[in-house]
Every structure is written in C-alpha cells, then in structure tokens.
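[stage:ingest] chain + small molecule (manganese (II) ion)
[stage:ingest] validated
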Amino acid sequence: MAEHAFAAPAAVTIPIIGDSRVYPVRNVYGVTRNYDPGGEIRARAERPLPAIFAKSPHWVVSPGGTVPYPSATMRLEPEIEMIIAIGAEARGVSVAKALDAVFGYAVSLDLTRRDLQADARTRRDPLDVAKWFEGATPVSALARAADIGHPRAGAITLDVNGGRVQTGDLADMIWQVGEIVAMLSYHFPLHPGDLVFTGTPPGEIALNPGDRLHGAIDGVGTLDITIGKEI
Ligand code: MN
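[stage:predict] done
[stage:export] tokens:
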C-alpha cells in the first residue's frame, strides 16, 4: 500500500456503556422536523417526510467535553436529540427489519449556527455551513440496544445552566426509529459506525460561552457539556 502523504485522521470513537470497547464513528446523518407534541401531524393520513442531512463525523465530541463557541455566528443553538448508532450494514431495508441494524442509542446535541442556517434558507444556498464546525456534535456514551431495547417513549429534556429549555417525549416522534433507518437506507447504504439524529423537541435558546448543558433521555442516558471560549 502506498505511504500516506500525511497522517490519516484518527478514528473518532464513542464509549459504550458496559463494554470496554469503543464505537468508531463513520458518518453522521440526521432527519429534521420530527416532533409533533400535539399529535396533529401523526394523525394525518400522510405524514410529511423529514429532510435528511449530514454532519462531519470528525466533530463528534465525547461526553463531559468542552465545545468551543464556533466562529462566524451570533446565534449558536442546541437541539437535544436521541441519536441512533448503526451496528450492521443496511441497504433498502424494510421497517420491519430496520431495528436489526441498530447497535444502540445515545443522547446528543445537534448544535446549529441558526443565523447562518436562516441566511442560507433565504438565499436558497446549501445549509451545510450551519451544521459543519468544530465541536458540532456532542454525543453521550452509547447504550446498547441489547441492554435497553429500542426506546419508543420517554422524556427527552435539555437544561442550560440549570434551567429547562427543551422538553418532549420520544413518543411524539412523527417518524419512529425503524422508519428513519429504513428511509435513510433507501437513499444510501448505512454501515456500522453511522450515527443518525432523530430530530429535536420544541424549545429554542441562544448559547453563550460558559454555558453548562445537561441533556437527558429516559432509559438512554445523560450528556453534559460546557460551551467554551470563542475560537
Ligand atoms: Mn436537528
């Protein structure tokens, strides 16, 4: 094999609860607009499809870490989300088979430069600049599906500096985990190491350097991070 021109990036890994091994990250995907607290959207004959997006896998941050306040934004917002960790290849899988490809779940933050996202939407530009920055994806330790099952209900909350800013329930998801995995696997193959954001419940706040964030999902775990100084 030819020698690399420079050192290849080290694998980004996530701790696994109850396992001495770690989970190496491959790709990071997500779906948007997936919570419906009133149930009105879920009651429709045809539910609106979510948008699918991707984030850099290199900016996954381990639990307990500090996220530098990113450059180029005046409005950094958190989105508390359950993230799915894929553990087997999935190509065009049915909803019935989709959960077989799930390794586990974690608590995550889909950090977003909201002002850049809004500008990009107005201009009909690509939205990537809103989601791609150092520290953009803090993730908790993974809970294995073998240990916790596949959560379909339970509180999902985010506290900033001790005050509740987001709250919801996994049961309010418009598209459930199996449906999301099946949907993505028709667009591109999923592989072990792929993470999938599942959307965020209501609640908005602008973050500032020094803020302490505590996310929690019943039956999955907790995530604590601090927003650091501006870079
Ligand atoms: Mn999100």
